[in-house]
Write a structure and sequence with these properties.
alpha/beta; seven-stranded mixed beta sheet; 10 helices; about 40% helix; globular; binds S-adenosylmethionine
C-alpha cells in the first residue's frame, strides 16, 4: 500500500527518533495533518495540551512559525524527569527556543488566563483524562480549553478512536489488556463529537484520518515500548487488521 505524503514532516525521516520523542500514532505527520486542518497561520499563539517531550510542539513552532506553549503534568517513564524539561531541550535542538515554552501543568487546572490562544492542539492526550477522570473530567478539560481560546480560536483534537462497529470477538482480549486498555480509552467519532460540542464548541470538521492505519503501524514499528513487546500493541494491530482501531480528528471553533 502506498504511503500518505506529508511534505513538511516527510523531511524528518528518523522514525525511531520521532517515535521515541513523540508518544502515540502519527508523530510529526499527525502534527502536520492537524495543523493544515486547523489552518495554522504564522505569528499566532498555540497551546499544545499533553505535549509529552514536545517534539510536535517544536515541529509546529518551526514549520508553521507560531509561538507554542506546551503543557504536560507528567514525568517521563524512562528518565523520570518532567516532560517539559525534554520540551526545552528539544526546542534548543530544533532552534526554536525563543518560540517555545513548557509548563508542567495539565487540563483542567491550568491557571492560564482566559482568551490566551489562537489555537489549541491536543493529540493522543485527552483520552487519558477520560480514563482517569471519567467523561465528566473529559468535558471539564475541554471546557478549560474553550476558556483558554480567544473568540474565533480553533481547537484541533486528534484521538485514537474506534470505528463505529462492535469489537470483533477475536480482538477483544487484545484491547482489554494493559494499564490503559484500548477498549476503555477509545470512543467512536460520533460520541467524541457530541462531547466536544457539549463543552461549547462549534464543530467545523470531524472524521477518521485517512492515514490512521499507516500511523498506527509506524507507531508499532518504531515506538521503543512497542518494539520491545511484540505481543503488545503490534500484535493487537495485526489481529485488528483495520477492522476496529482507528484515529479520529475534530476541528472546532469557539464562537
Ligand atoms: C501519549 S502522550 C501524547 C503526546 C503527543 N501529543 C503525541 O501525539 O505524540 C499524552 C500526554 O498527555 C499527558 N497528559 C496526561 N494527563 C494530562 C492532562 N490532564 N493534561 C494535559 N496533559 C496530560 C501525558 O503526560 C502524556 O505526556
Amino acid at each position: 500500500m502506498s504511503r500518505f505524503q506529508y511534505p513538511k514532516s516527510d523531511k524528518y525521516t528518523n522514525y525511531d527518533e520521532i517515535y521515541t520523542q513523540c508518544s502515540g500514532p502519527g508523530g510529526l505527520q499527525l502534527a502536520e495533518f492537524m495543523a493544515d486542518k486547523m489552518n495554522i497561520a504564522p505569528g499566532k499563539k498555540l497551546l499544545d495540551v499533553g505535549c509529552n517531550r514536545g517534539y510536535q510542539t517544536c515541529f509546529l513552532a518551526k514549520e508553521y512559525n507560531v509561538f507554542a506553549i506546551g503543557i504536560d503534568p507528567w514525568d517521563d517513564r524512562m528518565q523520570a524527569n518532567p516532560m517539559v524539561e525534554h520540551l526545552q531541550e528539544n526546542a534548543s535542538k530544533w532552534g526554536v527556543e525563543n518560540h517555545v515554552l513548557g509548563i508542567k501543568i495539565g487540563v483542567p487546572d491550568t491557571n492560564i488566563s482566559s482568551n490566551s490562544f489562537d489555537y489549541v492542539y491536543a493529540t493522543t492526550a485527552l483520552e487519558m483524562v477520560r480514563v482517569s477522570q471519567g467523561v465528566e473530567g473529559y468535558i471539564k478539560a475541554i471546557k478549560e480549553i474553550h476558556r483558554l481560546l480567544k473568540p474565533g480560536g480553533i481547537f484541533g483534537l486528534g484521538e485514537p478512536m474506534h470505528l463505529d462497529t462492535k469489537i470483533p470477538e477475536d480482538l477483544e482480549p487484545y484491547v482489554s489488556q494493559g494499564e490503559y486498555p484500548w477498549k476503555e480509552c477509545f470512543r467512536n467519532l460520533k460520541e467524541t463529537v457530541e462531547l466536544v460540542s457539549s463543552a461549547g464548541f462549534t464543530i467545523t470538521e470531524a472524521d477518521y484520518a485517512p492515514a490512521a492505519r499507516q500511523w498506527w503501524m509506524d507507531f508499532a514499528n518504531h515506538d521503543p515500548f512497542s518494539k520491545n513487546d511484540p505481543e503488545g500493541d503490534m500484535k493487537t494491530l495485526v489481529v485488528d487488521d483495520g477492522r476496529w482501531v482507528s484515529f479520529g480528528y475534530i476541528i472546532s471553533t469557539k464562537d
